[in-house]
């Protein structure tokens, strides 16, 4: 039978910049697969502006850690050989690989150029606040270390529509580049008037040569890595029509099973739905709305109404296009979009994405293995492993919701005949000890269910009517299941339905 799929984001912002990350992935691939993680989202594989760059300050799209550029041959994560071996190791063990693509901007140019710009108001990029003037901008990319291998395309200011630094004056601002057919794209998010510009030298997708080169690069990358999909970074800033064109061409190249998910960072649900319409549903989106609901629930404690946890979320309205997540590299502490789900609620949040029928859940490396850096965070592998086990072995079949209380909610998965012992009952509370009476099926009468989280050491016996009363400790989650390979029918410690 078809098992549940689970993705892991295999990096956090502070992964050691020692070039060992790809080797770590190759080593851990079999262990991750054994835990039910069958897809890995890896960080940007392309050369950044320094050996410490996370890959989002992208310099050379064709340098995967092969050429001596920007201070090293390797990237932050390792060499091209390490990368290819890591992808091959994942494939050998049945783990698909999604590669993070940064297509909004370029950084670390090789030379400056002089060209005309106007300065715009950072809070309204449609408002011009200067006369046209010349700046010296870092916009010329010649890639001397690669010397034209894989692509002879060289970038100059004509391929960008904005930048943020005038080297002649040592001055920063948002500068829109002038020229024939030069403007911000009309097909981007309307925050700050027009959110085409994000950072560095902003790629101009109104330029046909740019569109052709970026599609050619995407095709080269899938051929080179033999990956199974892409994660597209910062797509609310990229011409949405190009995103649709790019996705169409990648699917044409690799087939309908080639998977793409985009980072469209807006909690506003209508904007996400409009974007999905624009791109003809060719890619999925991360459920930013749900992330912020989980974040609010963790901050609010018992003042948050848990019965509303899925209201106004993408997983509710577009379950087939929603990638659910608790946290990621941008929401982790001290990063750009910090909105870190509090530790006490983290297991409950993961239960809410891993053990329900809708959405494609993504586990964050920082939650599982921990976060390094100035303020380290310990990994929660011990708390998350039981939930991963439940997702892979138990969370199947029809779902019945009991989201009817502001403090204690629950749901059951009734299981499927093909998977003996499948089915689970999940209870979450943000207040005091609670319980939920839930129906798991009359055929389960007399079964003893135990709590995979270890919060309870007694069993719940399913009543003749198919109901069980499933308890939960204060501020936690419990996942009740029939222990694998067991079908016992009653002990002195049972909690009777």
From TrEMBL:
Q: Where does Ca(2+) 1 bind?
A: 104, 196, 237
Q: Which InterPro entries does this entry report, sorted A to Z?
A: A-amylase_thermo (IPR013776), Alpha-amylase_C_pro (IPR015237), GH (IPR017853), GH13_cat_dom (IPR006047), Glyco_hydro_b (IPR013780)
Please provide the record's keywords in A-Z order. Calcium, Carbohydrate metabolism, Glycosidase, Hydrolase, Metal-binding
In this chain, Ca(2+) 2 is annotated as bound at: 204
Q: Report the domain of life of the source organism.
A: Bacteria
**UniProt-recorded Gene Ontology molecular function terms:** calcium ion binding; hydrolase activity, hydrolyzing O-glycosyl compounds
The family database entries (CDD domains) matched by this protein are listed as:
AmyAc_bac_fung_AmyA
Taking every annotated instance into account, which residue ranges of this chain make up the domain Glycosyl hydrolase family 13 catalytic?
A: 5-391
- Asked if the Swiss-Prot or TrEMBL record annotates the protein with the keyword Coiled coil, the reply is no
Active site (record annotation): 233 (nucleophile), 263 (proton donor)
GO terms (BP aspect):
carbohydrate metabolic process
- Please give the family membership noted in the entry: Belongs to the glycosyl hydrolase 13 family.
Protein's name in the database: Alpha-amylase
């Amino acid at each position: 039978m078809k098992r549940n799929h689970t993705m892991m984001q295999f990096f956090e912002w502070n992964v050691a910049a020692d070039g060992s990350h790809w080797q770590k992935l190759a080593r851990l691939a079999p262990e991750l697969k054994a835990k039910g993680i069958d897809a890995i989202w890896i960080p940007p594989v392309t050369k950044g502006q320094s050996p410490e760059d996370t890959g989002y300050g992208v310099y050379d799209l064709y340098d995967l850690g092969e050429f001596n550029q920007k201070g090293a041959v390797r990237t932050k994560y390792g060499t091209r050989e390490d990368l290819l071996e890591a992808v091959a190791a994942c494939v050998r063990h049945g783990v698909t690989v999604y590669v993070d693509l940064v297509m909004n901007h370029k950084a670390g140019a090789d030379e400056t150029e002089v060209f005309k710009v106007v300065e715009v108001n950072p809070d309204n990029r449609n408002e011009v606040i200067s006369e046209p003037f010349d700046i010296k901008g870092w916009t010329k990319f010649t890639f001397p270390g690669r010397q034209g291998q894989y692509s002879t395309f060289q970038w100059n200011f004509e391929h960008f529509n904005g930048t943020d630094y005038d080297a002649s004056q040592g001055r920063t601002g948002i500068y829109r580049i002038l020229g024939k057919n030069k403007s911000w794209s009309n097909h981007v998010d309307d925050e700050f008037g027009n959110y085409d510009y994000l950072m560095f030298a902003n790629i101009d997708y109104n330029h046909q040569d740019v569109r052709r080169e970026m599609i050619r690069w995407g095709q080269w990358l899938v051929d080179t890595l033999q990956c199974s999909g892409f994660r597209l970074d910062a797509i609310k800033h990229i011409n949405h029509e190009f995103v649709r064109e790019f996705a169409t061409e990648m699917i044409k190249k690799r087939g309908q099973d080639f998977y793409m998910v985009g980072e469209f960072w807006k909690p506003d649900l209508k904007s996400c739905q409009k974007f999905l319409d624009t791109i003809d549903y060719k890619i999925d989106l991360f459920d930013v709305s749900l992330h912020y609901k989980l974040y609010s629930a963790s901050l609010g404690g018992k003042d948050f109404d848990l019965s509303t946890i899925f209201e106004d979320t993408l997983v509710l309205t577009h379950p087939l296009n929603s990638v659910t997540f608790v946290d990621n590299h941008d929401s982790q502490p001290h990063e750009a979009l910090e909105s870190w789900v509090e530790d006490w609620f983290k297991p409950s949040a993961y239960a809410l994405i891993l053990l329900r029928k809708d959405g494609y859940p993504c586990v964050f490396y920082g939650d599982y293995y921990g976060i390094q850096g100035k303020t380290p965070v310990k990994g929660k592998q011990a708390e998350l492993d039981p939930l991963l086990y439940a997702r892979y072995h138990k969370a199947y079949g029809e779902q019945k919701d009991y989201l009817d209380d502001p403090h204690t909610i629950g749901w059951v998965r009734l299981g499927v005949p093909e998977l003996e012992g499948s089915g689970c009952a999940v209870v979450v509370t943000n207040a005091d000890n609670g319980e939920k009476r839930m129906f798991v099926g009359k055929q389960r009468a007399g079964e003893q269910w135990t709590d995979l989280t270890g919060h309870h050491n007694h069993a719940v016996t399913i009543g003749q009517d198919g109901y069980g009363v499933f308890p939960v400790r204060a501020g936690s989650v419990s996942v009740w299941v029939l222990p694998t390979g067991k079908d016992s029918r009653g002990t002195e410690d049972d909690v009777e339905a």
